[in-house]
Design a protein that fits this description.
168 residues; five-stranded parallel sheet; 5 helices; globular
Length: 168
């Protein structure tokens, strides 16, 4: 007869992840950011992320429609993303990848939240356990992204969170 431990489910070797919205969740939403000098961190972002990074891979999934609207360039958005990633890395918080949608909502693209394209791509590329993963953001689309991708969506009241709370 097998030992009791032989009947227990084997733990997954795949790591869970946290998919973070950028503007309004990690940093203040100040419109279409075109410069790293416009980045303002939420004071609790770093300590909160430090508590997650030991057990989760971290990713950023961000809609940046300002590119399609001509308000910022893709290079400016990339510079802000690179700055955010470098700042977090210096704080001991590695970001595995950043997924940016540069389109307007009416473009009907596959990459805009709440479409799960970026999360599913990350899951394939990094062999993630989505059932134990989360999407965190300040918009109902972040919660819906969680539902559509098989993760759990967590809504925060930073950024636009209070404004959109009734839409949940």
């Amino acid at each position: 007869m097998p030992a009791h431990s032989d009947r227990l489910p084997k733990p997954s070797l795949r790591r869970p992840a946290v998919f973070l919205d950028r503007d309004g969740t990690l940093i203040e939403d100040r419109g279409h950011l075109g410069s790293v000098t416009d980045v303002a961190w939420f004071p609790d972002a770093i300590p909160a992320l430090r508590s997650l990074v030991q057990d989760h891979d971290l990713f950023i999934v961000t809609n940046q429609s300002g590119i399609a609207k001509g308000r910022v360039t893709a290079a400016q958005v990339q510079a802000v993303n690179d700055y955010v990633v470098a700042y977090l890395a210096a704080a001991g918080i590695p970001i595995r990848a950043v997924y940016t949608c540069p389109h307007n909502r009416q473009d009907g693209c596959d990459c805009i939240k709440p479409n799960p394209t970026s999360v599913l791509q990350a899951a394939r590329q990094f062999d993630l356990d989505l059932a134990r993963s989360f999407v965190i953001g300040d918009h109902p689309h972040d919660v819906e992204l969680g539902r559509r991708s098989g993760t759990r969506g967590l809504y925060v009241l930073t950024g636009h969170g209070v404004e959109h709370r009734d839409e949940l």
